[in-house]
Write a structure and sequence with these properties.
Chains A, B, C, D: This is NAD(P)-dependent alcohol dehydrogenase. Chains A, B, C, D: Pfam families: ADH_N, ADH_zinc_N. Chains A, B, C, D: InterPro entries: ADH-like_C, ADH-like_N, ER, GroES-like_sf, NAD(P)-bd_dom_sf, Zinc_ADH-like. Chains A, B, C, D: GO terms for molecular function: oxidoreductase activity. Four copies of one chain form a homotetramer. The first copy, chain A, contains ten helices and 16 strands. With about 350 residues, chain A is α/β, with parallel strands linked by helices. Chain A folds into two domains: about 170 residues, Alpha-Beta Complex (Quinone Oxidoreductase, Chain A, domain 1); about 140 residues, Rossmann fold (3-Layer(aba) Sandwich), CATH 3.40.50.720. In chain A, strands 3, 4, 5, 6, 7, 15 and 16 form a seven-stranded mixed sheet that branches. In chain A, helix 3 crosses helix 4. The longest helix of chain A is centred in the middle third of the chain and has 15 residues. In chain A, about 60% of the residues are buried. Strand 14 of chain A pairs antiparallel with strand 14 of chain B.
């Protein structure tokens, strides 16, 4: 089988290697990967070495999000049998609640970080607790988008924000998390506002169910949010840009609103005015993807509400570098790899 | 009767005036004020005109927090009768939930802001909905500390943070909100850590029930929090300094922790690292005092748990300027005015 | 103007009377009623005198739920102006949270109970706090169904149950509350199962968005729920029958499920097995309609999600007795009165 | 080593057997048991065979709650090392949230049920995930009371009820769960009312921190609760009797109150009036002990708040039959076995 690996930080060290199909241990499953989705954090790990380590035993394999089929199970495995379609739990060991970790480092680590195996590989062995059932109605390419992008939006809006019908949800841009936010919000009967610098993308977002699109290059988007909500503001905001951009999201938020900090495009620090935060009793949520119970809920919601994750482009798994470049250029939805 | 008033912004315009005792309307009560507590926001209003207006009819009277006795009631008043001891609801009209307001201004406004009457006055007329029963076991001076300082700590720890026994609460400094935070946390069976630059104040905090004191001038207080909690961190933090100081509080917080932004001593902007926020799934709460239902709960808690608010100094009501100066110097607990 | 009234308990005392259009007090509004919805509790009050009193001043007027237009406002009214379309808050004084009341009687009382004015009248004077904006997209007949039937379903599923997409909601029968439950659940992306003894009604429910219908006369409905959910059970159940029927709902519920006790057709006592309750960690909710904040949320949800309340039959307001009889026969949705 | 076992249902088959000390598997720990607490469910299993099975391999060993010391660990164990003091997680596999199980059977099963090993044994082998750290300040006898009795009270009051200072908690009787409820409530600054038929027990409860005792044989205890709370009622009730007794608890509850159904002394069915449930918007909680995350929180709370579990009598582990008889007679707190 083939798998992606690297022995030093930097894109130039990324190589497609050949190896034996691994054998699952007593409580493990062997999954034949059908598709794997790329996340911004994969690029940070591969190019800059962020939040990754080179494992002491075995190769480093990147990638955390995949959909595939169980092809073999260990002797003590009770949850799965060969033929089951599954998706990965990208943060192994986080079942529910706040999860493991300490004040210094937080946690947990992700698949494909070197702490745990990666999924940019034709086959992967995972603990039986690190996969959940795939949605019945999605292709592997679509299902592979759920473990991080879909779950991040679900955690922000549903698990932390307790979204309900009739509320207003603002998503920034049209990347993978934002489009999942749009679709999850629409499935809950919420009003969805999307901001973008590209009218064509706004039109595509409207086709997916967005109620309003704001071209942030044409006008002050915060003022537009106030107008579109008759002064009420947005009850939920997915802050994708991050950094000082947060300050504007706080202005756009409704009294009692929820703002989830997700993106780091605007920098690794965030800033805002205390007066907005206090006078509107806002809640800011730090989001690290989400736990397994939420992922199981998301799978049920995707099936019931008929959500089809938006895949910008599916590359053959041998074209990971091209796929990484594409992701950096700002796709509409997700960029994924498909495996033979 | 006498009352404090001003016709232009700035301490030099603050004057003690004489007038008639007002008469309550059909749904109003007349309260003889026993004591009134000072808040930092009073100083910002008086000295700098912050979040205040000069009312079109009648004089501007500062002050939002008082305890006193109902001495007359309007014809349609059902909630109160003469002789009832009450404290003020400092943010009138906010009964429960997120309360009134819009995305532009938030809300609501406070007593003593010019939008509503102020309580630095021997008598005050208030809507019957704008007062709640005073705790049975406190003096007026003590009870006057509840409407803003006590309620702010309660909102942060209990209403928003859902504090439970065994958790760790960190309070910064020994001002009014922080000491209420200490006492409320201790009453809930929490571990309390106090930071201060003054060993004498830490000793007094320990006498009030703090489990640990950290002199922030002697050592790195964040590291100390990690050590005192065996790496777990603080589950709840009252961020009193604000501004960039927030970044350090995020480092001190536990996985799943709650950080309430309260103070503005460090500036009106806040900043921190997204990595701390995300990897520890923190929740940041913007706190604007609290609603009436929480104030009623706080009153019951104070009585049941035997909490005695800490009054640094009680000044005769004629010495408001001296009291404001004292508050600026960093008292241990609250500075209040007492009325004859 | 005409209004319905009675001077003694019992249907035979119900009379359409004539009187002057009332004049609003300083904080009141005069509403020209467009439509009023009937609730089971109206029948209990009119026929059996349940939870009603004859007011000491003025006539008893039944009816709590109406939609209409503000035609005059008192001098101190700030929330409304003539021309505003409004619906009634059926439990006056309950703004948010748990609301008023004590351990002996609970509370609050409803409009049309004698404690408060009733709305089966061409015009009604209400406190400005006792109405909220009507949905923009509904007729008065449709909007009049929200204050009790719609709000009861919203409170059970959303406010208490915290419904999310992908969960399974079971509603019993096809009365007003159940059909609102169906529509609210579908608007949140939930799977909806309806039980009924009538296949024609199940077909109509499917057309409204129900995923599955179970004819309870054809088969064991609890077993059917287990099968339709692959053993998972229902996450939310609106228990409309009540009494001992609750025991079966507990069997149908999922682990961690929510069961809302709403109906009293099966008797005023409820019963069930502790083992179901405990081993599935169920939560049983006692539901008394809901508070004003929830009603405002429901109005926004209805407009955003395009929910059209189901009106079985609209009677001219002069035919209240016929309408009451119709309601007793088990309508599909609501029975309402329309006013000229 | 010795351990208790039986090959057929019924007390007469209960025997103390001898066997080899077991050896832990790769992810298991061997614990030398210091003390084990008895629960009512142990008697139901031993005497009546309730919710138990005879395992296909190995002997049936009763008992779910123990405190002891890790003496050996498997090769893959990371959480523990020899010398660690631990207590058992009585419902293995329930980490957080609603946990595993389906609509038919609920779940999970307990230690000592035959589905999982039992702890009435000098040594027991358990999965490393099935124990948590013991409180630092308790003896083994005291600590053994936490896994079921302590956790049940914590789940009801804190995890489900979200208890806060100043609220009123009613506990019925002075058994193990009730006394934990008393102590947990007092540690959170709540007002505690205890009912009992025995004045001596009420006096002992007062010494433990109860604010009020009501002798249910001397007067109507519901009326007494109303009086002691000035008509407010109890915000939280631990319903220990169950059956039709629940109806009285509903009468005693406050508006918005929480009633947790725990006991089955009054029968395996419960009953009450819908009017109490609805008009007071009560929440009834089905409680099955609790999850591991709550148990970890309880351990921290016990250490921080200085809670000492009440042990009525500690029997040598060879006297299990005598201990079971004692438990049936209504002890004050817990009956435990101590091991050499």
């Amino acid at each position: 089988m083939t798998y992606w690996t690297m022995t030093a930080t930097g894109r130039e060290h990324l190589k497609l290697a050949h190896g034996d199909v691994p054998v699952p241990g007593p409580r493990e499953v062997l999954v034949k990967v059908g598709a794997a989705a790329l996340n911004f954090r994969d690029r940070l790990a591969i190019d800059d070495g962020l939040t990754m380590v080179f494992p002491e035993t075995g190769p480093f394999v990147p990638g955390s999000d995949m959909a595939g089929t169980v092809v073999a199970v260990g002797a003590a495995v009770e949850r799965w049998q060969p033929g089951d379609r599954v998706i990965s739990v990208s943060l192994p060991g986080w079942i529910d609640g706040s999860g493991p970790g300490d004040a210094l480092l937080g946690g947990p680590e992700a698949l494909g970080s070197g702490y745990f195996p990666g999924v940019f590989s034709e086959y992967v062995v995972l603990d039986q607790e690190w996969v959940v059932s795939a949605p019945a109605n999605l292709t592997d390419a679509e299902a592979s988008a759920l473990p991080m992008a879909g779950l991040t939006a679900w955690t922000a809006l549903v698990e932390r924000g307790r979204l309900r019908a009739g509320q207003t949800v603002l998503v920034q841009g049209t990347g993978g998390v934002s489009l999942f936010g749009l679709q999850i919000a629409a499935a809950h009967g919420a009003k969805v506002i999307v901001t973008s610098g590209d009218d064509a993308k706004l039109a595509r977002a409207a086709a997916l169910g967005a109620d309003h699109g704001i071209n942030r290059n044409s006008r002050d988007w915060v003022q537009a949010v106030h107008e579109l909500t008759a002064g009420h503001g947005a009850d939920h905001i997915l802050e994708i840009v991050g950094g000082a951009h947060l300050a504007r999201s706080l202005e756009a938020a409704a009294v009692g609103g929820h703002v989830s900090l997700i993106g780091v495009l605007g920098g690794f620090e965030f800033a805002g005015k205390i007066s907005d935060l206090a006078r509107k009793k806002l809640t800011l949520h730090g989001i690290q993807v989400g736990h397994r119970r939420s992922l199981e809920e998301l799978v049920r919601a995707v099936d019931q509400a008929g959500i089809s994750p938006v895949i910008d482009t599916a590359y053959p798994h041998t074209e990971l570098p091209e796929a990484l470049d594409h992701m950096t250029r700002g796709p509409f939805g997700k960029v994924v790899l498909t495996f033979p």
